[in-house]
Amino acid sequence: MTQASLHRVWVVIIAFVCYGMAVGYGLVQLALHAPQLQPRNPQPSKALPPRGTLLARDGTPLAMSSRAGERLYPLGLSASQVLGFAERDPRGVAGKGLAGLERDLESILAAGRDVRLTLDPAVQSLAEQALWSALESSKADWGTALVMESRTGRLLAVANGPAFDPQAPRQDPALDLSWRNHAFTVALEPGSTMKAITAATLLEQRKANLDTVVEAPMYYRVGGWTINDAVSHPPKLTLAEVLRYSSNVGISKLASGMDRSRLYESMQKLHFTDPRLMRGAWLERPQVRPPEQWGPSEYANATFGQGFLITPLHLAAAFNALANDGVYLPPQLVQGAVGEGERVFRSEVARSIRKALTDGVAPQARLEGYRLGGKTGTAQVVVDGRYSRTVYNALFAGFIPSDKPRVTVVVVLHHPKGPRIHGSMVAAPVFREIAAGLFSLWGEPPRLEASSKSR
Amino acid sequence: MRVIGRWGGLYLSLLITLGTLGYFNQSANQAIARLEQHKAELEDRVLQLTLTHYQHTSALVLREWARNNGFIPMSVAQWAREGQ
């Protein structure tokens, strides 16, 4: 073999080795990166995750997203004001939240995380059915009803009306208020429902008991203002009768024997001054002036729920302290650990007030065979800086059942029209209907000896 | 010629192996794409069925149906003791 032939053999061998290595590399790459059903190293998607789902306490989806990004509300009208809505482009793809929990929980939902709420679809639906019927019959502008679990503070229902369809074309939000969650976003005067809190404070401070008698004319003057009673009553009333007849004169005269800061302390302990009493949802800021700014007439007004503004949620949480034997629990809408309780009234005080509110409950709130208790309220609404003679809020706050409360209920109807505008006439029947539905839901038959006392 | 024949045979066999692997890869890719498409269609179907389910059986719908058909809550019915 010549020297030249030997050189050629080496060149061919080296060329084949290179070729073999290249083919081998190709085969190894194919073996390593062959397509598989489950990718070994999934690459994080650059696309935004679909918006998270809002779930009811039983797992029912309340708001969910399609693959295309469309926001869907399987329960339709139910709880729609609490859930709110998100931006919607012409193709129906949802953007960021604009109202309700869609807005308040934006950071969580936008990250694709699901949120479980405390709402119970069965309780929610019965509260909505009762409220919407009452709105129709009373011709009220709007209304809200809250159902709170007494031992935990969890909101089982937050009903609002008129009904709002989150999928329908949107109206002008300034004119059509059906989208608004009035329970959280409207601060109003609680009216006579406040008398239960004032009475509990009097008992807590040992300034009165349910049998304490007060001279109660139909009107009297305080600080240059006249305080009137709406319901005719005997000239002398016990504290229990003051609650039964909802006497403004009686409660303000009894409270005049107590330092006004004591009432304010109760209001503070019941979080009437707290704009952030519930995690996860935006609330309208309450407007409560400190006692140093109260004159005699402002203090008298405060004892029967005038001169300060709180949301229906604040009122529900406060009444729930009476239901929970004097211990205040922070209201809860997003599932989680129950908040720490805070004692406001002695347990015997809370029980006494519940008994008085059971014995003196409005006839329209009674249900044969069950013990129900609560307090009505009819609050004049300030229009153009003055109390209107035609615009009222009708309220009812009560316990179901009232001896061992399982839930606390607050009902508000704004501007009912016609001859029936009082809390006892339009709000109490909603409470009664909710109670009837709940007892059926719980499978609790009536006990004929258990009815609330007749007058 | 014999050397060219040997290496040519090896080259061809490797080429056929590579082609076969490529074919299987493409088939697997298409199968995955088909399965993903099917999965997406099923997800859409589940979503539609979920919506339909709640349109017909949500608590509010059932309650409205019960009211329209004359049902009343047990708690407001007429109750009587046994023997009365």
Notes on the protein architecture:
Chain A: InterPro entries: Beta-lactam/transpept, Beta-lactam/transpept-like, PBP_dimer_sf, PCN-bd_Tpept. Chain A: It is an enzyme of class 3 (hydrolase). The complex is a heterodimer of chains A (455) and B (84). By secondary structure, chain A is α+β, with helices and mostly antiparallel strands. In chain A, 34% of the residues lie in helices and 19% in strands. In chain A, helix 7 (194-204) packs across helix 10 (260-269), helix 8 crosses helix 13 and helix 9 (248-255) packs across helix 11 (296-303). The termini of chain A are far apart. Chain B has one domain. Chain B starts with a helix and ends in a 16-residue tail after the last helix. The mean pLDDT of chain B is 90. Chain A binds chain B through residues 16, 23, 26-27, 30, 34-37, 60-61, 64, 66-67, 72, 74-78, 121-122, 124-126, 128-129, 367-370, 435-437, 439-440, 443-446, 448, and chain B through 7, 14, 17-18, 21-22, 24-25, 28-29, 32, 35, 40, 43-44, 47, 50-51, 53-55, 58-60, 62-64, 67, 73-76, 79, 81.
